Amino acid sequence: MVDDKIFEAYERLAAMAPAPDGLEERIAARARAHRQRRLLLASGVATAAVAVGVPLALRDRRSEPAPLQTTPPPAQPVQVLAPLMFTPSWFPAGVTEQYRSATFATATGPLMTMTPGALQGSERYWLPPGVRYVPGEPEPVGVRIAVSPRPRLDSGDRITVAGYPARLRRGETVAVEWRPWHASFPYVMVSVRGLPDAEAVTLRIARSVMYTSAMMTVTMRSPAVPASIGELTTAAVCPAASGWYQSLTHVSKDGRTSLEIVGQTAAPPDGVRFLVTRPDGVNLYIRDSAQPEARRMLESVELSEPDLTWVGDR
Asked: Which of 75, 93, 244, 251 has the lowest tally of Cβ within 10 angstroms?
C-alpha cells in the first residue's frame, strides 16, 4: 500500500514537469541571451569610464573597500636617555622626588653608557610634602644628590663613607662628598637642608648610595648651538604649579659663558628678551643673552612633553 502511494506521488510530479520536446534548445537560448546582456553592460561601463577619464583598472576594484583616509603621523617626540648613575636606597620619611637634571657633552649628547667625557653629572631633589622645586629660587628644604666629575666641597671634616675618603661640611645645609668604588668614577655629594637631625640623615643617606641603571628621559633638544657655548649642556625637568618645566643650559668650555632655553606650560616671566609661543600653548624663552644666535637657537628648539612618571617616587 505504501508502494502504491509513492508511485502515485511520482506520477503527479511527472505530470507537472515541462514537456521534454525542445527543452535543451530553450536552455541554450536563455544562456546566449544572458551572455549578450553581460557583454553589453561591460561595454557600457568601459565606455563611461573612458569618457570621464577613470582608469579602466579601477573597474575591477569596485567591490573592494575604500582605503582609509589618514593624516600623516605626528613627528616622533624628542626622547634621549641620560644615565643618573647613583641613587640612595634609604630616605627620611615623607620625601619624594621632584626634580631631575643631567649634564653631558654637547657634541655627543646624553649616552646610555658611562662613556668617559660624555656624561658630566646629574642632580636630583627629594622634597617633603607641600614643598615644590622652583628653578631660580633658593634651594628648598629636602634632600639633594649631585654627581660631578670634579669635587665641589673644598673644605670640611675628613671622614669615610663606606670605607672611601670623604668630606663632611656642616651648616644650614649639611653635605658629604666622596668618590665611590674607583678613581674613574665621578664624585657623589649628598646634602640635606632643613630636615630634623640633618647630619645623621645625611650620613645615613650617603652610606645607602648605590649604582643605578635608572635613566632620565631628555625631551628637549637644541640643534643650533654655536661653538662658543657648545661644550656642555644641562637638561633639567620638574613639575610646575600649572603643568611642567624643562630647560637646556649650554655652557662654554671655560664655564664663563652660558645660555639657558626654557620650555614651560605656564606663562613666561616678565622681561624675557626672546619668546616663542607654540600652537599648543607651550612657551619657549631665553631671559636674556648677548649671543647673536639666541633667536635662531630658540626657534630651532625641538621639544616634546616631558616624562614625569617618576615624580612622587622615592
From this structure: 93
- CA–CA separation, 114 and 213 (whole Å): 10
N- to C-terminal Cα distance for the chain? 96
SS3 5: helix
User: In this predicted model, what pLDDT tens digit does every residue of 102-149 receive, in sequence order?
Assistant: 998 887 766 544 444 456 789 999 999 999 999 999 999 999 999 998
Q: Which helix (H) or strand (E) holds 191?
A: strand 187-193
Tell me the pLDDT tens digit for each residue of 4-32: 443 454 444 344 444 444 544 554 555 55
Strands of the 258-264 sheet, one edge to the other: 157-161, 164-169, 173-178, 187-193, 142-148, 119-127, 96-105, 232-240, 243-251, 258-264, 283-286, 274-277
**The three three-digit cell numbers of residue 124, written as one number:** 636630583
The structural domains of the chain, with segments of one domain joined by +, span: 81-218, 219-307
Kindly give the pairing relationship between strand 215-218 and strand 173-178.
Answer: unpaired
What CATH number belongs to 81-218?
2.60.120
Q: Which residues pair with 192 in a beta bridge?
A: 143, 174
pLDDT along the chain (314 residues), means of 10: 44 45 50 50 41 34 34 51 91 97 82 53 96 94 95 93 95 96 88 97 97 91 88 94 94 90 95 93 91 89 95 92
